[in-house]
Amino acid sequence: MQDEYRTVARAGVHETEVNRSRFLCALAPAATEQEAQDFIAAVRKEHADATHNCFAYVIGADGAIQKASDDGEPGGTAGVPMLQMLLRRDMRYVVAVVTRYYGGVKLGAGGLIRAYGGAVGEALDTLGSITRRRFRLATVTVDHHRAGKLQNDLRSTGREVRDVRYGEAVTIEIGLPDADVPAFEAWLADATAGTAGFELGGEAYGDA
């Protein structure tokens, strides 16, 4: 797994105009290829009267899945420059749809490439990006009378408390960078006088 990746901070739309053609770039985070395709379908439905709805998406922290479509524009003048802009900005788990309403002036191949790639770049600048880092999921089990203080201690030391479940004991799920695991185990034993249980789980990504 990659140690970290960048993605768009939030979904949104940014509009630009080039020689009377309107370019609306809709950007969104997408956890799976299906999510990306659903987003594309929704934008196409919303802008069914548009001249073109071109798209590009990158799924996977390593960029394993990459797709682009010119949607009727001359080959290589829309989807590919959109995809190249996403990759140039190191964006992952992201989908972009650029909707074009033709304004009567032909832009030529170079103009189209600049317009579509530029629409994605401007939208990324406007919406911003976030970095998500790889971490290990870990489960801490502690008795009820220590649980409240432990949760406060975890939060005050910057640990991400992802879930808390109350049963016979209290189970607290946290996220830890791999490198922090040994130091955390020592801290936990000290903070709970050795009474807490600790179990490592799988890997996931979270906001850096």
Features:
single chain, 208 residues, alpha+beta, five-stranded antiparallel beta sheet
Structure description:
The chain has 208 residues and is α+β, with helices and mostly antiparallel strands. The protein is 33% helix and 39% strand. The strands form 2 sheets. Strands 1, 7, 8, 9 and 10 form a 5-stranded antiparallel β-sheet that branches. A 5-stranded antiparallel β-sheet has the order 2-3-6-4-5, with helices on both faces. Helix 2 packs across helix 3. The longest helix has 20 residues.
Binned, the helix content reads 25-40%
Number of strands: 10
List unreliable stretches of 5+ residues: none
Summing up helix and strand content along with how strands pair, one would put the structural category as alpha+beta
Through-space gap between termini: 16 Å
Radius of gyration: 23 Å
Largest sheet: 5 strands, antiparallel
- Mean pLDDT figure: 91
Tell me what portion of residues adopts beta-strand conformation.
Answer: 35-45%
Overall geometry comes to: elongated
| Structure annotation, total helices | 5
List SSEs in N-to-C order.
EEEHEEHEHEHEEHE
